[in-house]
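Lab notebook: predicted structure, single chain.

Context: the supervisor wants predicted structures on file for every construct in the current expression panel, including those that have not yet been purified. This is the next one on the list. No modifications to the sequence; it matches the entry in the shared construct table.
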Amino acid sequence: MDQWLKERKSEQFYRKAKSEKYRARSAYKLLELQKKFRLIRSGDIVVDLGAAPGSWSQVALQFVGANGKVIGVDIKPVLNLKVNYESVLGDIFKNSTLEKIKQTLPRAADVVIADAAPEFSGIRTKDIGIAMLLSFRSLEIAKEILKQGGYFVSKAFRGSDYEKFVSEVKKNFSIVKEVKPKASLRESAEIYIVGLKKN
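Prediction complete. Output recorded below exactly as produced.
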């Protein structure tokens, strides 16, 4: 994809997000995954790791309905979402943040979603390495808080630790899918790992 097409695709989803009142175009990645796998259902409790600016939480809130709940976790606050949204402020690498999540949960989570990404430095191998640490940590948290049979979605990046991460997800979930959503730029190393039915 040349630069012009890349920018046009990015702009297309950016404009769509703006017109449909999503906080970021990444909302369309989760919407596509939701359509494929029906991850989030009415009444579910969903934990959104790396929630800021809140677009994935917005999508999750659409599907959990009035009886469900979305808990967003980030080092930055995510404000002004629906009443059944709760924000947990903290670094997901800290055990104190995991304890805060557990205290906020009314019961085991049905779904854990993680679109967490680091502040990119521009050094590809370094950035992918840090991003994959976020993926591994998201999986560790999911193992702690998900109910048996629960669902997990995490951003990942193709790099030296990618296969190891997929292997770890497969150890904990009956079905594992690797998906490249349409809203993700083709030349990006970004891919989403979907774990269905936690063991």
